[in-house]
């Protein structure tokens, strides 16, 4: 197996150094009503505050009643932590990452006691998030066990969620033995081949909700596609790319809205499409197409990623008139999965930026800065020295939790898209980090 490092495929600092520092210098991609923030404190200050934010999240691991998130949210947190180290060329958080990722590999919630597959449980999307975290750890720290875990999750979901021709012929997902869950071979005249069930469900427990769940989801299919694309990039094994294309093209057939955003899921029994629209479904879709387009030299795939990125940054479905993502707002003291959806969009815009035209790169950079501007000024503990962030990026700040911090860290990681010239040389601290 040939293993390629992401360092050989992308070099972040030279890439961003060539970008213009003002949105006005390139063709307008973002809505004209959006704010155009500028940094008011030095780059050193921004990175220092950001490091403190990561340290604050990790401090939540301490004590009996840890506020560090568990499950898929926690895995996204570890993804951010490993990415921070990767971008900073450090191993600052390696020990904590390895201890916690190793624990999670053999103690995930749900169905691990049945499947005994590292990082896998009842939810195929949870397994996907964990595998992507493990891949980020592999790229940051070079530990081959993290790559092996990610590959094992791909194989697991391929056998316990991905819809093969044998499943269509049998009328149900064979390997998970769901005799009461009928799978239609076609919906709306299109083959269901390639979709990924949301849950696999432990068949040893007939009362397990997932054992009869008929939903085939954008998130589970998109994660599988993105995981396959990244494994293809890292290992050079074309099999991963082939399967990733099959999963993403299933989304094309069933869940793409007229505007290019992504519906949530289709019921594999009734063929009913659920028209919920969330940031993270569009994020995974554009991320998978971006990686696939790059590594297979497929301009059509890159164009799809570009168009969905532009739509995602401009849609009123989740953006305010100023350009701030408002999804996941509400009572900031209550846990809710939607807290972290929006951050996945930032992560995947960051992911694909390196393969986009300069005007799209600039739009992504500005969009990231808009989120940071609002986080700092409207949803942080101190706009002059922001460390803790809340759930409602449009404000107002009330409290930070493990979930809210995980979401904000994606924005902090994406700030690396800014060139040094975007920051002032002065080291003042008596004004907000970023303003308009």
Automatic annotation (TrEMBL):
Write down the Pfam families for this protein, in alphabetical order: Glyco_hydro_76 (PF03663)
| Keyword vocabulary terms for this entry | Hydrolase, Signal
* Coiled-coil ranges (or none): none
Record InterPro entries: 6-hairpin_glycosidase_sf (IPR008928), Glyco_hydro_76 (IPR005198), MUG_Protein (IPR053169)
Which Gene3D superfamilies does the UniProt entry name for this protein? Answer: 1.50.10.20
Q: Which residues form the signal peptide?
A: 1-18
Which biological process annotations from GO are given for this protein? carbohydrate metabolic process
Keyword Signal annotated: yes
User: What GO molecular functions are on record for this protein?
Assistant: hydrolase activity
Q: What SUPFAM superfamilies does UniProt report for this protein, alphabetically?
A: Six-hairpin glycosidases
Has keyword Hydrolase? yes
In terms of PANTHER family, this protein maps to: MEIOTICALLY UP-REGULATED GENE 191 PROTEIN
Q: What is this protein called?
A: Glycosyl hydrolase family 76-domain-containing protein
